[in-house]
Write a structure and sequence with these properties.
The protein is about 35% helix and about 20% strand. The protein contains 11 helices and 11 strands. It is globular and about 50 Å long. The site of iron/sulfur cluster has 10 residues, from loops. Keywords: Iron, Iron-sulfur, Metal-binding.
C-alpha cells in the first residue's frame, strides 16, 4: 500500500519499509552499516550506480519512494545492533529535495544520536546545513560532499551548483565538523572543473580528506547504458587514460595537503578500548 503524488513529472511515492539498516561485510573489527531512507534519487545523475542495484523500471531521476516509517524501523533495529559507523547513503542522496518536506534524514539522525551511533554522511546538497544543530551533538561524525569532474546540469540535473556545495563545506568546517570530499566520478576525457582551482577552494573551505575515483561501470551495465544514452559519449572512450590520470590527481591532492587514506573513517568504540586496558 502506498500513496503517490506527481510533481513536475516526478513521481514521489510514500512507502513503508520492513527493514532499513544494512550491515556491510568488510571483515573489520567494528560493523559498518548503510542506511537508505529513500529509494531512487531526484538528483538524477546520469553516471549513478544505483539504478544497476535497484532495477526499477521507472526512469532514473524521475522517481523516489519515501520510506515514511523509517525512524520507527531504525529505532527498533538499533536496539539490537552492535555499534558501528552508519553511512548515509549508498544508493540515494539523504538530502535530495524531498528531504525538505519529509525530514526523514533529520528524524533518523535524532534516533542515531539517541543510540550513540557514529555517522558518516555523503551528499551533494546544502540542505545538510539545516541539521547542523544535530550534527554538532554527535561524538563522532563525518560529512562528505560529492564533486565530480563534470559538475554540470547535463550530467547531474538537480544537484545544487558547485559553489553552493563549497560554501556548505566551509560552513560545516567552521562549525567544527570534520569534512571530506568524494571526488568522483572523474571522467578522464570529460573534465569541466579546473582541478587545481578546485583543490585550492577545498583547502580554503577546511576540507580534511579527498577520495578520488574514476568512472567505472564494470558490473553496472544499466548505469553504463544510461550514461551512454544521455551523454552521447562512449564509456570506453570517456575513460581512456584513466590509470595515469588517477595517479596525477592523487599526487596533486596529496601535494595540497589532503589526507587520501581511509584514516578519516576509522572509528573505535571508546568503551571497548577502555575495557582492553582495564582487563589484566
Ligand atoms: S546524488 Fe548520488 S544517488 Fe543521487 S543520482 Fe546522484 S550519484 Fe545517484
Amino acid at each position: 500500500m502506498y500513496t503517490a503524488e506527481h510533481v513536475n513529472g516526478l513521481s514521489i511515492r510514500e512507502v513503508r519499509c520492513a527493514t532499513l539498516l544494512h550491515r556491510m561485510n568488510y571483515g573489520w573489527r567494528y560493523p559498518e552499516y548503510t542506511l537508505n531512507l529513500y529509494r531512487g534519487c531526484l538528483h538524477g545523475c546520469i553516471y549513478c550506480y544505483a539504478p544497476s542495484l535497484i532495477h526499477d523500471e521507472r526512469p532514473w531521476g524521475q522517481y523516489v519512494d519515501v520510506k515514511i516509517n523509517a525512524p520507527e524501523v531504525l529505532e527498533h533495529e538499533l536496539r539490537k545492533a552492535a555499534r558501528g559507523v552508519v553511512f548515509l547513503s549508498s544508493a540515494s542522496d539523504p538530502y535530495q529535495a524531498v528531504e525538505a518536506k519529509y525530514r526523514l534524514t533529520r528524524s533518523c539522525l535524532e534516533v542515531l544520536l539517541e543510540h550513540d551511533f557514529p555517522v558518516n554522511i555523503l551528499t551533494r546538497s546544502h540542505l545538510v546545513l539545516r541539521d547542523l544543530d544535530i550534527l554538532k551533538k554527535f561524538g563522532w561524525i563525518r560529512v562528505g560532499m560529492s564533486i565530480t569532474s563534470v559538475p554540470n546540469r547535463m550530467f547531474e540535473p538537480r544537484v545544487p551548483p558547485l559553489e553552493r556545495r563549497l560554501e556548505t563545506l566551509r560552513r560545516l568546517s567552521e562549525e567544527g565538523i570534520t569534512t571530506w570530499v568524494s571526488l568522483a566520478p572523474i571522467i578522464p576525457n570529460l573534465f569541466m572543473v579546473d582541478l587545481e582551482g578546485l583543490l585550492k577552494k577545498l583547502k580554503e573551505a577546511g576540507v580534511s580528506a579527498i577520495h578520488a575515483g574514476v568512472l567505472r561501470f564494470e558490473g553496472y551495465e544499466d548505469s553504463r547504458k544510461m550514461f551512454e544514452e544521455k551523454s552521447g559519449a562512449s564509456y570506453y572512450g570517456a575513460i581512456l587514460g584513466s590509470d595515469s590520470l588517477i595517479h596525477k590527481v592523487n599526487d596533486l591532492i596529496a601535494r595540497y595537503g589532503f589526507d587520501t587514506s581511509p584514516k578519516i573513517f576509522e572509528w573505535k568504540d571508546k568503551n571497548t578500548v577502555l575495557e582492553k586496558y582495564i582487563t589484566p
